Amino acid sequence: MSPGVSIPLCCPILTLIVLLASRPRSSTKGPLDQPDDPLNIESLSKISTPLISNPVDYGMNTGASFSTLDPLAPEELSMNLEKDLSFLLRYDNYHSLSQVDIPHALRSEFISLKPDESLISSLGTLETLLVEGHFLLAAYLCGTILTSSLISPTDVKHVFALFYTRLACLELSGNTVIAAQESKALEDLSSTFYYVDPPTMAADGHHDHSNYPRHIAPWPLRILAIRLQSIGFGDSRRGIGGLYELGLEARRAIVRPDLGPTEREIWKSRLSDLGIRTVNALIEMGDLSAAKRSLGSLRKWKPDHIITDVRTVLLLLSIGDVDAARQLCFEIGDPRGAILKPLLCMAEGRYDDAVLEWRSLLGSNDRAMDDAAISQNLAVCLLYTGHLSEARNVLESLIQKQRSFSSLVFNLATVYELCSDKSAQLKTGLVGAIAEQPITGDINLDRLNADFKL
């Protein structure tokens, strides 16, 4: 991916989406270029498994989270399955990683395994890197563990968890192309190799578990692999087909009579998420008419209907159907939908009205609102209305408040280019200011030069 230089500002819709993510990923594309994931579904989806379940527990990292990646994983994974995953442990599967594209002030030393280090200890170190937001370093350590003698080819749960973490961290650190190439090592995830047969009948005549084949790969890995493999093989239709296959699996699971209420709700949530991902994939393919039809046919899952409505509005704006987006926006009564009104103004080019709307949201003191998202979109509107100095002040105030997410940094660097002949020095100073900020775990620390337009 290469940085865009033609258009100065982040698209208002993409700006909001980046900020809705719990950990905004580093982007090296131009602000109005088509992103790798227009809606950042990995972050927006409530059922996507986080890399770390509790990112605030510094010093409490034991590696336990890598055993709980999928709540519906077969219990057989805890036992010694006769599944040899040595094909995922080959050294030639993994690319060499470098920090040459990262500013010197933000570089950290890659962590290597100690001679006497155990698997539990290395997983704890990996968790610490994830907690801190060192995604590139975490990806490097995952590859090191996977190609070491610490892990057994039959340790299915840890192999898959580490491979998933490797791919996710590569994408989060702006190395999607590398992740797409490495995902090919999984080959066909729908093959019989990845399924375990139902357990035999217990002595009392009852089945211990449901009588159906179960997939041994965790659900988050399957979701991520579909997208990355479609990129790696250059076949977008492969991604659509993979999502439909998972959708059929989810539908079959939902109607099983032996399923408990909790498991059924998880499968319903997964099915709802797959519908949004399918629309997202169609948009990436450029088939906007099919995306609109698919979006209109989606059923709303009641617990998440507000989130689904908000996603739908964003998708409609991506498609270009502003009228439909406006109609749905007015139907959303939840406060979480209030942020869409100024976005509609921006989509229609009414930036003066959008400025008033963003200011109104900032003054509402609604805890459900993300002040950083609102402030950055306000700055975008201020710049479009010719208030360059005020836009700069708004963006710099966010940096001072230690809210240095990727799109904010890119926008501020662009503002520096527009308002000063010494933009290189200003951007270098921005790198230094961010390097001195305390670690919170909310952002990617291994940022590329392109994020700062250096």
Overview of the molecule:
There is one protein chain. The protein is mostly helical. It contains 18 helices and two strands. It has a two-stranded antiparallel ribbon with strand order 1-2. The longest helix is centred in the middle third of the chain and has 25 residues, at 261-285. Mean pLDDT is 79; it is low at 1-59 and 200-209. Keywords: Signal. This is Tetratricopeptide repeat domain protein.
The low-confidence runs, each spanning 5 or more residues with pLDDT under 50, are 1-59, 200-209
- What is the oligomer described by this structure? single chain
Instruction: Characterize the main sheet.
Output: 2 strands, antiparallel
Shape: globular
How many helical elements? 18
Give the second-level CATH assignment, the architecture of the domain at 1-36 and 338-454. Alpha Horseshoe
Indicate the CATH class of the domain at 1-36 and 338-454.
Answer: Mainly Alpha
Instruction: Describe the strand arrangement of the main beta sheet, using strand numbers.
Output: 1-2
Average pLDDT confidence is 79
Element-level helix/strand string: HHHHHHEEHHHHHHHHHHHH
Give the helix proportion (percent range). Answer: 40-55%
Class inferred from helices and paired strands: mainly alpha
What separation lies between the terminal Cα atoms?
15 Å
The CATH topology of the domain at 1-36 and 338-454, please? Serine Threonine Protein Phosphatase 5, Tetratricopeptide repeat
**Binned strand content:** under 5%
Strands, count: 2
Radius of gyration: 23 Å
Organism: Aspergillus keveii
Signal peptide: 1-28
Protein name: Tetratricopeptide repeat domain protein
Keywords: Signal
